[in-house]
Amino acid sequence: MASIHYSPFRIYCDFQTIKRAFRRRTEKSIYKYSFDSERIVKKRVDEYEAKPQQKAIFTKLSREFTKRFESYWGFSSQNKHRIQEEFKRFFIINFGYYGLTQNIDSLWIGDFCTDFAFKCYQDHISFAEALTYRTRGDIMVLSERRSQDALTGPDLLFGKDSLTDNGFPLILDLAKSRAIRLETVAILNYSLKFIERYNKKQQNISPLWTNILSYQWLVFQTYWINWSFETGFITQDKLDAITKTFIQEITGKEPT
Predict the structure, then answer these.
(1) What SS3 class is residue 76?
(2) What is the pLDDT of residues 208-229, one digit of tens each?
(3) Which domain holds residue 71?
(4) Is 142 in contact with 171 (CB distance < 8 Å)?
């Protein structure tokens, strides 16, 4: 059995902080976790100790995550800071994808201690390591749908004719079905701001989509873009190249 290299209680604290950020429409506490006072520390300890079943799941998650670090991903389990940062990324990526299909309030730690959650995170790592290639593949998927449905550029993104039967714009419906990555949508929106423009114009959209637009999306995009720039997975030149490829493929025009 793998030893625990990152405290289950600390994982619990990070999980609660990140979940609160997704619920409270702020990304301020995503990057660093700090206790505000001794009272908060005691409250968190009491909450943690009062739920033996949940405590056992955090312990299991710590062991499983450490084992997968060592066995599959080649990270050093002795680098506690790296493990802490990867745990945060693991939670945020999964909150982003889970948020496409269900309300964040309904999620609990058991949803993150599953093969689905680990695969979601592992797929994210693979995407980040081949970012240019993977985003271009997603853009090709969008281009094919544009041709099939005879949509113009804006319609493909969030136009009035792009809403699917469940009330989602086509581009998010493709992300929801994993036909394209949510990370690609974040990269394109960071440059083109189409979600913000759409949000201002639309009134009759599904409650789940309203939640994503109003805060879940902000937290996911802010973390993913900032992390990508900080780690060098994205540079401004690379971002500009991705945006240029998208505009060329979707509109057939050179970006202005």
Answers:
(1) coil
(2) 555 555 556 677 888 888 888 8
(3) 8-98+110-119
(4) yes
